[in-house]
Amino acid sequence: xxxxxxxxxxxxMLNIEYPVLLAGMGxxxxxxxGGVAGADLVAAVxxxxxxxxxxxxxxxxxxxxxxxxQIQDLTDRPFGVDILVPSNTAQRPPKSESPKDPRDxxxxxxxxxxxxxxxxxxxxxxxxxRADIRLPRFxxxxxxxxxxxxxxxxxxTGLGNPAPFSEQxxxxxGVVISLVGNVKNxxxxxxxxxxxxVAQGHDAGGHTGRIGTMALLPQVLDAVSVPxxxxxxxxxxxxxxxxxxxxxxxxxxGTVFIPTKEANxxxxxxxxxxxxxxxxxxxTRVYSGKTMRNVTNELIEAWEDSGSRALPMGLxxxxxxxxxxxxKQAGREDLxxxxxxxxxxxxxxxxxxxxxxxxxxxxxxxILHRRLPAAVTAEPxx
Length: 382
Ligand SMILES: Cc1cc2nc3c(=O)[nH]c(=O)nc-3n(C[C@H](O)[C@H](O)[C@H](O)COP(=O)(O)O)c2cc1C
Fold this sequence. Notes:
about 40% helix, three-stranded antiparallel sheet, binds flavin mononucleotide, single chain, TIM Barrel, alpha/beta
């Protein structure tokens, strides 16, 4: 069978065959080493003709270097690295002000609130290993220096403005992609040098905004002059075709690539996504301090129902770390972070990532070339 053809300006900008980008899915709390979109998944998507993007949020430069080298061993095709550059992340305080135990940075009333949620869930008291409760020693600039020095062709930024790094990436011949969830931030990142804006709707897994994908896309398309890529709830050829029909140049997909052989996540959490219906995810601040869509669970429900106020990113992770350890000790893996989108209900089996991508592309090409004209009768008026 001949390969489908699906080509947009995005393919030319990124030197890829199909306008499908793997979302740079980062580490999950308690998810083991590395991001969900690790080297194997990145290489699989790039080798299949899309753009694999490494989820490198929170990676210190040495870990980043190691992962980039692994990808370079697995593929000759272009790929990207995604980092988070939020404006209000808690950074490690200067050494002179650093408490011995980072937990001392947490307000006691929030610690008490989290403790009573833990008790309500009948979880044992536990202390997270020291490695899980460290604030970063490095800055996004350190990560960008590594990415640029290793000649990665694409920098993707979630949660924030790429402005401080755009010139450096462009001078090295790279492309900057930035994720946004509303029109204001789309304008801001385009002004900050993003070459491509990913408009990510509320439907999406992981950190997400308040506007649904269908409402967000046309408004972002009208607001910026750079190409726009659609994200949030896209997991098959129908989603790709709809995004292209809107005027987007491609899609950025996360959830659909989690139940794959190559995704760096344990089988238990992949299965929870396969078991989830469209109703089974909920947006919560409990894990990171920012609004994040997860397969819901009793911890999320208890936190959200308690009306507790989340701490800034970084500190909230510290606050929840001990409860994550309690959940692990109690065999309650269902309480761990398991970011996934509303489209989870469409996913039914674990497949190789290349097969997922090929299936999506083939279906989109079919719709755009044949099925749409057959199903719709329309002529432009004069
Ligand atoms: C498990 C998971 C982890 C994620 N981590 C990140 C991240 O570290 N950085 C980022 O920019 N986006 C992250 N996202 C959001 C994705 O980039 C993407 O926008 C989203 O998955 C698209 O919606 P979909 O899940 O419906 O395909 C994550 C999403 C998921 C599901």
